[in-house]
Amino acid sequence: VEILPTRESQQVQQGALPQIDPNAAIIERLRALQADYFMPATAELRRSLRTQIRATELDLVERILAARDAELTAQLNAVLHKLDMLHSQRETTELTREREGIVRAIEVHQTVRQALRQGQSLPFFLYRLYFGSVFNEHDGFDIVIANPPYVSIENMKPEIKETLKKTYTDVAAGRGDLYTYFYARALQLLRPGGTLAFITSNKFFRAGYGKGLLKTLATKTTMRTIIDFGDAPVFDAAAYPCIVITDNEPPSANHTYAGLTTPAGYKYAELDKLDAYFMLEHQNLEQGNGVHPPSGSQATSDLVNKLLSLGSPLMDYVGERIYYGIKTGRTEAFIINQATYDRLIAEDPNSVQVLKPLLRGRDISRYSISYNGSWLIYTYHGIDISKYPAIENYLSPFRERLEGRATRQAWYELQQPQQAYEDAYASPKIISLRFGLKTGFTFDEKGYFCNDAIYTIATQKRWLAAVINSSLCNLCLISLCPTVQNGYSQFFINKIGQIPIIEPTPADQQRLTAIVDELQALRGQGPQAAALEREVDAIVYKTYGLTPEEQAEIETWHAERRRQLATPRAPTMMKRPKWRCP
Question: Rounded to whole angstroms, how far apart are CA atoms 350 and 545?
Answer without folding.
Answer: 55
